[in-house]
Every structure is written in C-alpha cells, then in structure tokens.
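User: I'm curious whether this sequence folds into something compact or stays loose and floppy. Could you predict its structure so I can see for myself?
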Amino acid sequence: MKIKLLLVLLLSCVGAYAQNASQSRVVGYDNIVAIVEDKIITENELRKEITPFVSQIRATSRTEADFRRRLEDLREEIINNIINRVLVVKEFKSKGMTIPESYLISHYDDYIRNEFNGDRAAFLKYLQSENKTVKQFKKEQEEAIIIDYMQSQHRKSIAEISPIKITEYYEANKEKWFESASVKLSQITLKSDEPNTANTIVEKFKAGEKFSDLARKYSTDSASAKKGGEWGWYKKGELVPQLDSAAFALKIGEISEPITVGNMIFIVKLEETHDEGIQDIDAVREQIEWALVGQNQSIEHKKWVERLRRNAYIKFMQ
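Assistant: Here's the prediction. I'll summarize afterward.
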C-alpha cells in the first residue's frame, strides 16, 4: 500500500513538472531524461537531435561496442547542450533583455525565403514532418538568436592575441603544421561499362583537346563536370589506393590511364602539387590566431556555463 502511495505521489510530481514546462502533451515518467528549471527533456527530444548523426557514427565505428559507446557519448553531450541552452536563455531574460518583435519577424521571413524560396506552403509541410507548430518554431528561432547573442558577449577579440603568443604557440606545436604531400586534381568519371569511351577521352587529350572540355562533355560527375573536372586538393593517402598511387605518380599536366574503382572509371589530371613539410608561420598565422581565440573563448565559456549550472535546478533521471 505504501509503495503504491509513493508511486502515485511520484507520478503526480512529474505531472506537475510537465504542466509547469507548458508541454502540449502528457509526458510519461519513462520518457523523461532530465529536468532543468521548468524545462523537461524527453527521450523523444533527444532522439530528434541524435538521429541525423547515427548513420555517420555507424559508418565510422569499428565495432558494435564502439558504435554504442559513441552514441551514448553523443547522447550525454546533447543532454548537456540542451541544459546549457535553457540556462543561457534564462540568463538573458533575467537581465530584462528582449529581442525586438520586428527583428524576429524579419528573421522568420528571411528563413522561409532562404530555405524554402519563399514558399510558405513548403515550409508548413516541413514543420508538419517535424511535428512542430509555427509557434514552437518561432520560439526555437528566438532562443537561437538569444544564445548567439549571449555567447558573443563572452568572446575575446583577435586583437588581444599578441605576436609573441602566436610565435610561442607555433614553436610549441610545430607538428600541427606538418603537411603531407598533396595534389590538386581534375577528374572525369564514367560508368564501368564505358571502357571504350574512357580510351577515347585519353586519345583526344593526347591529340590536344582540353581536359576541361572533355570533362564537361563526358563526365558523369555533374558537379565537377560543370567546373571542367575540377576536383580539389587531396593529401597522400586520402584517396582510394588505386587513385592515390596513380595521382602521385603523375607530372603536372599529365593524365592517368583509365582507373576502375568499383562500378566507376576515373581519369585524373594533375594540376598542382605541394611537397610535405612544416608550413611557415606566416602561412598558418591566421589559424593560430583563431586557435588561441578559441582557447580563450572555451575557458571563458566554461566558467560562465559552470556558474549558470551552479545556480540552477538540474535533475537527471536514471
């Protein structure tokens, strides 16, 4: 009898939290992950944020155990991010600050214009697929604006990074600026059942036709074909072995013989090369500045969030 009474009281408390958090539906105890102030974090909310990353984690996990561990780490990170967002918004409002309604309306209209070409029907269909109302979406936008503003107040300027600090960081971290040999490539991609076309392309190139013109005409990779076959920079070891060995054996201006990889045929052209070695400080100065700024921001942000969390009501459900 006592156990039943305790269970009823516990469920009543959870129901009260749900009501205070203005949830549009009843939240069962099993669905609650954490409570921060008057906000309830549910499994469903977590699932929505985790789902976009699952396939990537699966593809890069070595074992099933590794997959589960990384998924659990992501889950914990997202829970804490949600908690931090709630507390940052609370801090903003506790200072009596508000976002002008005209700015929110403009931001909302810009989003529909940029993401849906101004098609409000398509936007509403998207919201329906996400199980969100316009009101919920606008609230999320407002909170995102608040968080961005509040975080900006804790950023340190690059101007505060002295040349001495930059030099010290460079000398202490030279291994970070080591670059493997790299090549800039153009490529033509064909289906594996087109070996005759591949040979024809090689012959036409050797006869004097421009590789860029051949790429636009023959390549099945529409993205690079539009740019004349431009493919970008690749470091030694980044490409599959067949392409890697062929690309790094070429001289600038040369093309490879047709290379079959899976169900595709590649013809690559070497455009430029970079030798391996440690980059000069001037080449990485901006990266160092941002790295030092990032360190300062991280320290300040951590102190700020820790203070917010110390003064907040946070409860994790087991």
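Summary: The chain is about 60% helix and 15% strand. Residues 1-30 have pLDDT under 50 and may be disordered.
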